[in-house]
Backbone:
């Protein structure tokens, strides 16, 4: 069996009393483009720092390309293309100097490719790094991450410093150069609409836990909003997982997992309902800040309001 | 082949692409035997994951709109026009039902709904007539 590109198993990490990762478990298969989504301070950068051997987990197992980053961080750094969220590079060097400086660290460095990326991403080669704008700094970091043709690329919010035109160009490069060549890409992002066309798979991290991992298209088919009359709640299966619910007058709007099964159930009971497709932002929001109420409690509430209005 | 992707839409990207290709088959813009861009080319052009494009092509092949010829690429199938019309007809059925439901919820009668539809068709016919009138 081929080992996955990245594997986290029950990983925990705390800074003093603040627990950042709690039993975080996920795996990224080779050749996949995997988007790591979460709000600010959800633990994304901490997880990525552990992958790169910059931090050590308190508990749990981490493997990157089969290596243990805690003990084999040199090998990990050499075979992974990495872009840090807050890249700080030697400010006194010029961009072309840093490219030549980095080359010997990587046996597989491709200098022609480095120069091509520098041109694509509008990196001014003759400028000193300390004089670059924030966006130019991110783009220089991307050139450094990609120029040694790594098998696995780990990018901490690469879209951060790119304008919409560059983001599209970056997505194209990711699709043709990385996906097209079967390499693994793991990247964090907060721009969900940019992630959707590109990622094979996404994981949602919230308060240090993975709350959902799924193929992007499957997630879109699986999570939908269902609008029905509050009286009809009684017909829903009690084990149904509701991510968010809103009620207004006699109507209830539920965001549910396994939408297809729920629809079938409602159709077979002959219950009038409407199914609303959701975009990725709405799905993310439902997972992260949705109003969860167990279905049984909702049925009780619907029941009481019903009897009150009748009485 | 012109395709527009709306980012952040509630319609999944694969459905957006599939529907636009089907629409162009139905409208006769993509004719039988026409060669589609390769998966790689279309993925690059639209900046969309290659696997997504591949799944769209495969789905349209299953629906009989496209055919894959080994080693040559993907082509618009014979009778794609008829097949895509059937598929569109189904979708329209659904949309009409949704509209009818909204109308009933607003308190319109069946006659009111028929009237709205007839008026819309009449308007289109009138527009078509003035267009041909101008060009002739």
Residues:
């Amino acid at each position: 069996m081929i080992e996955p590109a990245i594997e986290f198993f029950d990983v925990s990490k705390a800074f003093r009393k603040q627990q950042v990762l709690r039993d975080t478990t996920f795996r990224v298969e080779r050749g996949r483009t995997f988007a790591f989504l979460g709000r600010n301070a959800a633990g994304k950068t901490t997880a990525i720092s552990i992958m790169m051997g910059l931090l050590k987990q308190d508990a749990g197992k981490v493997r990157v390309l089969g290596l243990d980053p805690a003990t084999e961080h040199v090998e990990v750094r050499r075979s992974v293309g990495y872009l840090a969220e807050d890249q700080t590079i030697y400010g006194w060097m010029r961009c072309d100097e840093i490219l030549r400086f980095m080359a010997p660290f990587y046996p597989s460095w491709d200098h022609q490719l480095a120069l091509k990326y520098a041109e694509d991403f509008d990196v001014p080669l003759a400028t000193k790094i300390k004089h670059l704008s924030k966006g130019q700094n991110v783009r220089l970091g991307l050139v450094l991450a990609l120029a040694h043709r790594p098998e696995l690329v780990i990018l901490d919010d690469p879209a951060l410093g790119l304008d919409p035109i560059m983001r599209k160009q970056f997505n194209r490069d990711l699709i043709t150069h990385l996906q097209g060549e079967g390499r693994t890409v793991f990247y964090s992002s907060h721009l969900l609409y940019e992630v959707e066309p590109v990622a094979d798979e996404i994981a949602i991290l919230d308060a240090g836990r993975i709350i959902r991992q799924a193929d992007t298209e499957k997630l879109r088919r699986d999570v939908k909003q269902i609008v029905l009359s509050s009286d009809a709640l009684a017909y829903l299966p009690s084990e149904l997982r509701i991510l968010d619910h809103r009620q207004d007058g006699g109507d209830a709007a539920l965001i549910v997992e396994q939408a297809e099964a729920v629809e079938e159930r409602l159709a077979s009971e002959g219950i009038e309902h409407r199914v609303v497709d959701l975009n990725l932002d709405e799905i993310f929001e439902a997972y992260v800040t949705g109003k969860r109420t167990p279905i049984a409690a909702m049925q009780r509430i619907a029941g009481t309001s019903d009897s009150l209005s009748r009485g | 082949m012109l395709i527009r992707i709306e980012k952040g839409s509630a319609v999944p990207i694969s459905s957006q692409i599939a529907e636009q290709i089907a629409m162009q088959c139905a409208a006769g813009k993509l004719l039988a035997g026409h060669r589609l861009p390769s998966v790689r080319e279309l993925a690059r052009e639209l900046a969309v994951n290659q696997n997504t494009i591949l799944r769209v092509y495969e789905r349209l092949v299953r629906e009989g709109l496209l055919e894959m010829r080994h080693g040559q690429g993907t082509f618009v199938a014979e009778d794609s026009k008829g097949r895509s019309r059937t598929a569109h007809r189904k979708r329209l059925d659904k949309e009409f039902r949704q509209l009818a439901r909204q109308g009933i919820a607003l308190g319109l009668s069946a006659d009111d709904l028929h009237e709205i539809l007839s008026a819309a068709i009449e308007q289109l016919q009138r527009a078509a007539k003035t267009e041909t009138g101008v060009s002739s």
Summary: Chain B has five helices and two strands. Strands of chain B lie at 66-69, 73-76. The two ends of chain B are 30 Å apart (CA to CA).
